[in-house]
Amino acid sequence: MPAKGVSRVGGLGTAVGACLLLVAGLSACGSSGKSAGSTGDHAETSAAAGPSGASSKASGPSPTATGGLRLPPLHAGFDYQIGGAYPPPAGVRIVSRDRTAAPAPGLYNICYVNAFQAQPDERASWPADLLLRDGHGKVVVDEDWGEALLDIRTPAKRERVAARIGRWIDGCADKGYDAVEPDNYDSYTRSRHLLTSDDAMAFITLLSRHAHARQLAIGQKNTVELAGSRKRLGLDFAVAEECAEYDECGRYAKAFDDQVIVIEYTDGGLRKARAGFAGRLSIVRRDVQVSTPGSSDYVRKVR
User: Residue 50 in contact with residue 169, Cβ under 8 Å?
Assistant: First the structure.
């Protein structure tokens, strides 16, 4: 599993157990194995994000999935901006940003949403019965991020949770994003055996159908153990954190026909990813805070 410590806009921060406050008092927290990313539960404040709602569908050819959906360009420059939007560096063709941010004009844009867990500051807005509870009625929490797991154990509850996440996906489509990246697909592994991989796959299928109905491609976030089921679940590409560090990139590449975006958080991970997949996959090295330029933590490397 990817190392804990990445950050998400709007989350209760962790980065190796520490909580950092980002732009305008937003806290950054993330999930690895989960996502290095923002949860999308607060407004993105970066001026670099551009006007809200502006369409910025990338121009030029791009691979297509069944039904004519546009997939990310293969082996292309990528930037992971889920900790805050800023002007993409030269050579970048794909950007992933929090759902509250505007997409980057002219690029292939992926919209990050926290789909399987509730942000600490969003928890109260969820119906109490949609928060996963143990046999004593206590909410099950991902302790690394302080996020309550969502209860997707039954078809009825999955439909209700999916309805809310679907509205977030609608927002991504309305802003002009090309794809969506639902985070915490692997939350069942942190559920104290209350959730199963079948629950996760049934739920991601609902999100896939909704994304495709809005002409958005959908990426599998981490969870390499379920990559072999991606076609029947409707997943179009993968966003894999630290797959080189954990020797998983080959499994993603095989399952997704090289349609894989790789984020490494160490120089060693970047070197290993490039050594094995530099000519095939989209690879970037980011800092675990997924911070913005000008921050003392900011790191972005491609070689």
Answer: no
C-beta of residue 183 within 8 angstroms of C-beta of residue 35? yes
pLDDT higher than 50, residue 152: yes
Query: Number of helices (H) and strands (E), helices first, in the chain?
Result: 5, 14
Closest CA to 5 of 117, 83, 104: 83
The answer to whether the CB of 206 falls within 8 A of the CB of 158 is yes
Over residues 264-293, the pLDDT tens digits come to 999 999 999 999 999 999 999 999 999 999
Backbone angles phi, psi at 79, to 5 degrees: -135, 135
Q: Report the interhelical angle of 155-175 vs 197-213 (nearest 10°).
A: 40
DSSP code at position 3? P
Residues with Cβ within 8 Å of 295's Cβ and at least 6 positions away in sequence, in order, are 289
Are 263 and 284 in contact by the 8 Å Cβ rule? The answer is yes
Rounded to 5°, the CA angle 239-269-301 comes to: 80
Q: Which residues contact 259 (CB under 8 A, 6 or more apart)?
A: 63, 71, 72, 74, 236, 237, 238
Task: Please list, residue by residue across 32-46, b when 16 or more beta carbons sit within 10 angstroms of its beta carbon and e when fewer do.
Answer: bbbbbbbbbbbebbb
Q: What is the pLDDT of residues 217-240, one digit of tens each?
A: 999 999 999 999 999 999 999 999
Task: Render pLDDT for 155-195 as a digit per residue (tens, 0 to 9).
Answer: 999 999 999 999 999 999 999 999 999 999 999 999 999 99
Q: What is the pTM of this model?
A: 0.82
Radius of gyration for the chain, computed over Cα atoms and rounded to the nearest angstrom:
17
CA distances from 229 to 33, 47, 72, 226 (A): 18, 39, 20, 6
SS3 of 98, please?
strand
Q: In this structure, are residues 190 and 153 in contact, taking their beta carbons and an 8 Å threshold? A: no
Burial class (CB in 10 A: 0-12, 13-18, 19+), 284: buried
